Amino acid sequence: MSMDKTKFPSPFGGRALHFKADEPHMLGWYLDNVEELCTAYHAKTDDEKKWVAIRYAAPELQREWVNLERYKDGTYEEFVKELYMNYPEAKKAEKGSVMLLDKPTRPRACFLVRSSKSRKNPYASFARRLREIAQNNVIKLKYQLSDELDLSDRREEERRGHTIASYPDIAVLQPHICAPLSAPVLKAVKNYLLQTFEVSEDEWGKISFLDGGDKIRGADLVESSEKNMTREASFIKKYSHEVDVNRNFRHKPVLLQREIVYGQLLRVIEFHADIPSAPDDNGRLVQQARTVWLAVIRPVKLLGKSKRLGIPFYKDNAPIEVVDVDDLSCLVARIPDHEPGPPRWALCERQDAMGAGEENEE
Q: Cβ-count burial of 314 within 10 angstroms (0-12 exposed, 13-18 middle, 19+ buried)?
């Protein structure tokens, strides 16, 4: 990436970098800031670096520096050496200062450099900072307040972290966002859950809502036969769960919405999992066994509702889904439509069925 001169900060701003003729001892500080600007704005060649060094000097110094021999013909390093030769005060000011530290050592001294309030007399600020650090350490050791008086950035970050009871020794830290998971991440989460909580082999062919509720058959395990007068009691109404509205649009974010769906119950799976709960008195996570019943459903694709009867019709099925049995609402009857055209079925329910009034309100 080449240097763009238009993006450099203006030398006329109130907080802009300056080097004045009456402050020759500040030359080392000025050239250090010039190097930072060169790095930030991609000034890489010798001519570009010399242009930056000239830009923020006082006008009378600019006219003087451009006539230096090494500015015209030398490298940037040779130009800097010539500047130091013309400003012996700069060498004297840097003796014993942070400016002469080797570059690998400078980052370790940055906490002192940041504490300086005066460019002309930085040592008073350094001494004050070192005294405060020493006093703070003595108080921490004497009164055992290491955690309370820990003023480090890491301590402040951990203090603002988020913890949960299931992980008493771990905290999550900023940055924090609330956004739908991407498709690859969502798939990875599903794979982890499947590997961690193995689905058992217990499967059931019927489900009954107690206290007079419907009894629904699973089509995969219970055969239906019109010859033997067996009623096909496998179609259900209104299992509602979170559905991605944008599931057919790959590049759109996941947008979950509650939906009411008709479908056919295929079977019920018994799902056993030892899920970690809150820690006990000793801080250890307690595994609690939980059993979940999952209904395997083949949803139907509704064509719409009859204007005269107000009942839905369908022709095709949708891909198989799995929901909690609590999401099942009631049994519905499937009646073939004898109108000419492709075969389709109507889905009817009793008026006193659970959830019937709720749909009418919607």
A: buried
